[in-house]
Structure formats: structure tokens, C-alpha cells
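User: Okay, second chain of the day. Same drill as before: sequence in, C-alpha cells out.
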Amino acid sequence: MNKFLYIAIALIITSCNSKTSSTNTDHSTDNNRLESLEDLTLTQDFKDYWYSGKAEISSYELSQSRYGEMRDGKSVMIFVTEPFNTVDEVKADNPSDDNRPVMKLNVTRNFNTGIYPYSIMSSTFLPLDKKDNAIKISSSIQEWCGHTYMQLNQYDKVYDVSLFSYFQSEQEDYFEVEHVMTENQIPVQLRIDPTSMPTGDLKLIPSLEYLRLKHVETKPYEATASFREIEDGYLYSVRYKDLDRIIAFKTQKEAPYKILSWMERYNDNGQPAVSTGTLIKTLNTPYWSQKGSEYQVLRDSLQL
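Assistant: Same drill. C-alpha cells below.
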């Protein structure tokens, strides 16, 4: 028995050492890519607003298309800047040379379908030091049939994808997709400077929420993006050529370019499906320190 135990421990140590070596190689490769990227210049207005020690919380009236019907609900966007540890690929606890400054966007959607509720959340981390795509995106969907979780991690020229689902056809999967711009990073990128958004033909990975709700293949899709100034803001829209799908975001004209509304439209089994979010209220507050019951009134102000 002891002999087999020693063999098992030796195999584990060997496996761990191999994994560490691979991780170091990947990290070195990613550093080379990082050095080749153009620096991102942030305005003083941006720094004054986003590095004030507070997060921006915005609530939205949600109209969500699901199962061929429109569902009323609420959506919340939480924007905050923080350090991101590129080795462990999570929010950094301590200062380190491996940290990168990012803007994180957490988005929630809550609505009911008949008797049972849906709860959707995604987290997107967009670097603020370089002109780069999202370095991590995760999304989860909970409803009474089960739950799913999907995550993209940026590695050099690819995204490593992890998928866990209660559907037998999906259940557990690990694969890579080409490293291109992601839909989930669009609202974050708009907060930096809407006028610098890419336009024309481009490749784009659809939002993780859409990929899971519609069970669409995870890959870059050909799309066309457009930007225009309207009377009361800026409008950025994307049309996916092969998905028969359009998304659009409306922002303020002035910094901090608040997201005023968003829209998603696609073909759902031959019928048009449209989902929208319209701004209700915005708070700038350090919500992580407001756990006491006395702060529950802030939810009322957000109409949540």
C-alpha cells in the first residue's frame, strides 16, 4: 500500500512541475505580446472619475426576449477599476509586477419566465495600460432547470474557453478560439472613449450570455460596426452577418460616457426577438463597504 502511495505522490509532483513549466512559458509568451501593444493614454477626466475610490452602479429597466415572449426585469451594470493579477488571472490582493490595471464590468439581468426566474451575470476585465482586448470574461446563468458557467481567458493569440453546463450536449468542455475583439468588452471600451471605437468590417466573439442562451458555436463571427453622433448622445452598433443579429449601445456625449441604453435584436426561430435596457439611476459609491442593513435604502434609490 505504501509503495503505491509513494508512486502516486511522485506522479502528482511530476504533473505539478510540468504544469508550472508550461504556465511560465505561456506567461513569457504573453509578456512578449504585451510589449508589442500600443500604450493606452487615459485622460485626466478619466482618472479623476474612475480612480476616486468608488464604483459606478447603474440600474436599467430590462425588456428581455425569452421563449418567444417579452419579459420585464431589471439589469445592473457595475463599473470599477482594480488591479488584475495576470498569473492567477483574478483581482489582485497585493501589489505585484504581474498586475495590470483594468476596468471591470459586472452585468446582471434578472427576469421571470412564467413560474421560474432567470439570473444572469457576466464579468469582463479590460486592460487600461495597453490597447488590448478583454483578458478575462466569465458568465453564469441560473434558472430552475439548472445552471451554466462559461469563461474566456486570454493567452497570446487565443482565448482558452471553459464551459460547464447542465445540458448533456454541452456538459463540460475545454477548447480554444481565436483571440479577437469580444462583444462583452464593448460597453467597457465605450467608457474610455466612444469616438475611438473600431468601425467597418471586423471579427467579433458574441457575448457569452447570447452564446449560452442560444447555444451558438463559440467562435469569431464576421461583423460590421458603425459609430454615429445623435442628438442626445453617441450610438455604437454592430451587425453580425451570419447570425442575423444586431446590438447597439447609446452613451452620453461627454465623459464619463455613461451607458444610457442598449439593444439586442436577432432572429429567433423565424420571429424577431428584441431585448433592451434603459437607464434608471446611477450611483457612485464604494458598495463593497456598504454591507449593513442601513445601506439597503440605496437599492430603493436604484429602484431594485
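The first helix runs from residue 2 to 36.

User: Thanks, on to the next one.
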